[in-house]
Amino acid sequence: ITAAVDAWARGAAALPKPWQPQKPVLPVEGMRNVLITSALPYVNNVPHLGNIIGCVLSADTFARYCRLRNWNTLYVCGTDEYGTATETKAVEEGLTPQEICNKYNAIHTDIYRWFDISFDYFGRTTTPYQTTIAQDIFQRLLTHGFLQQDTVEQLQCEDCQRFLADRFVEGTCPFCSYEEARGDQCDKCGKLINAAELKNPQCKLCRGIPVVKPTQHLFLDLPKLQERLEPWLEQSWATGDWSANARYITRSWIRDGLKPRCITRDLKWGTPVPLDGFRDKVFYVWFDAPIGYLSITANYTDQWERWWKNPQQ
């Protein structure tokens, strides 16, 4: 308090000169370098006040604070454009997924500009960089033995003549009997679901009754990573600032033992899987979308790795 009173008494003239970062903003040796992201909003809707207050505005406030502190700050965001949510919206509006992405990316951009959100760059995930970086991460996982192949019993709609991705299926939750559970999780009890486990499943596109058929998919071998992950988590819990809820959920996953997680889907709209036998599939959005933070930064600057691969800064 004393320091604040003293600074106030000396007035604005005594403040250090505002830092004017180079363009593009890159880490500077000897400075405090801050990279800020907002959770990537889905491109299939119009942002409302809840989206802005709960995610974008808080990060914008922090970015402005960091700049006032003369910290070298980069704030990026963008629309999350792949996955079944986009395909579903495209079906609803009678447009192609790409047309839906173009339409709603422009709406998002205009709204954030109207609110004067201080992004250094607002991008999107449907870019060549997204494909390049996601496929590179996939190839590294493959090379280091962290992927496995397995047969999955998956729902197929014979009327639509397609395997149904998670969000194209609705049914009754096998755990809590909630009648509007999705094919990947139940929004009532929060449990992860295999779509084939749903009771009374329905195709969201035609309301037909799907049948179970086998299909090949690739899985991230999370059990192989658990032994390395646990000590990192213990250190992070001790030194970081995790919420009680985040700690509880993560502990429960570790306690129950990590399970292999499917990272491919029988869809057309997504990042293609670059492996023979799977080239008609795309990456599951929850494998692909987090990589969007990297690819959006890469679209901002070709020196993006200085932000994302620079743990010393």
Protein described:
39% of the residues lie in helices and 18% in strands. The protein is built from ten helices and twelve strands. The chain starts with a helix and ends in a 5-residue tail after the last helix. 29% of the residues are buried. It has helices at 2-10, 49-68, 84-93, 97-114, 128-143, 222-239, 244-256, 285-288, 292-300, 305-308; strands at 33-37, 72-79, 121-124, 147-157, 162-163, 169-172, 181-182, 199-203, 211-220, 261-262, 264-265, 282-283. Among the domains are: 1-129 and 285-309, 3-Layer(aba) Sandwich (Rossmann fold); 155-212, Methionyl-trna Synthetase, domain 2, CATH 2.170.220.10. Helix 2 (49-68) links the parallel strand 1 (33-37) and strand 2. The protein has a four-stranded antiparallel beta sheet, with no helix packed on it. By secondary structure, the chain is an alpha+beta fold. The mean pLDDT is 92. This is Methionine--tRNA ligase, cytoplasmic. It holds the Pfam family tRNA-synt_1g. One of its GO terms (molecular function) is ATP binding.
Report a brief summary of the structure:
The chain contains 10 helices and 12 strands. By secondary structure, it is α+β, with helices and mostly antiparallel strands. The strands form 4 sheets. The chain has a 4-stranded antiparallel β-sheet, with no helix packed on it. The chain has a 3-stranded parallel β-sheet with strand order 1-2-3, with helices on both faces.
Count up the helices: 10
Strand content: 15-25%
At CATH level 2, the architecture of the domain at 1-129 and 285-309 is 3-Layer(aba) Sandwich
Biggest pleated sheet: 4 strands, antiparallel
Order of helices and strands: HEHEHHEHEEEEEEHHEEEHHH
Instruction: Specify the overall morphology.
Output: globular
CATH fold call of the domain at 1-129 and 285-309: Rossmann fold
| Helical content class | 25-40%
Overall CATH class of the domain at 1-129 and 285-309: Alpha Beta
Low-confidence stretches: none
Keywords: Aminoacyl-tRNA synthetase, ATP-binding, Ligase, Nucleotide-binding, Protein biosynthesis
Catalytic activity: tRNA(Met) + L-methionine + ATP = L-methionyl-tRNA(Met) + AMP + diphosphate
Domain Methionyl/Leucyl tRNA synthetase: 34-311
Pfam families: tRNA-synt_1g
